[in-house]
Amino acid sequence: MKKSIVIILVSLLVAGSAAAFIIPGESACEAAETGQLNIPVKQLHSAPDENSTVVYDIPITVELLEVGADGNWHKVKISYAIGPFSYTYVGWTYIPVAKILAEREAKELAALLEEPQ
I want to staple 75 with a disulfide (CB 3.0 to 4.6 A). Which of 20, 34, 36, 66 is the partner? Predict the structure, then answer.
């Protein structure tokens, strides 16, 4: 059961890690450059918009701590408590955000080049 929870929550980090690259602002950019991130993932939204409906409040702590040099490996901290026992896991997971964004850009560029002028 713990593995299922960890797998589900790590997959949720795609939104958090993409936000680190997409959201404008000096703090996010500076953090990405230095590798010192601490981005909590606490809510699931119905659409990729901060104003969309929250469909689930995550009852545990999930934090994106660092993004690898290639943008596809992410250091994650997952913490939760059950009764008097608390558990914390820190490790690296592969979420191909940079690869997906690069493929998306390549498709958009190819589409622009194919348009008749």
Answer: 66
Which is nearest to 16 in space by CA: 49, 39, 36, 43? 39
The radius of gyration computed from the CA coordinates of the chain, to the nearest angstrom, equals: 17
pLDDT given at position 21: 44
pLDDT tens-digit readout, 34-88: 556 777 788 889 998 889 999 999 889 889 999 888 888 999 999 999 999 999 9
d(CA 5, CA 68): 23
In order of 17, 47, 96, the CA distances from 11 in angstroms are 10, 16, 11
Helix (H, G, I), strand (E, B) or coil at 13: helix
Task: Return all residues near 85 (Cβ < 8 A) that are at least 6 apart.
Answer: none
Q: What is the pTM of this model?
A: 0.57
- Sketch the domain layout of the chain as residue ranges: 2-114
- Smallest CA-to-CA distance from 62 within 41, 88, 34 is with 41
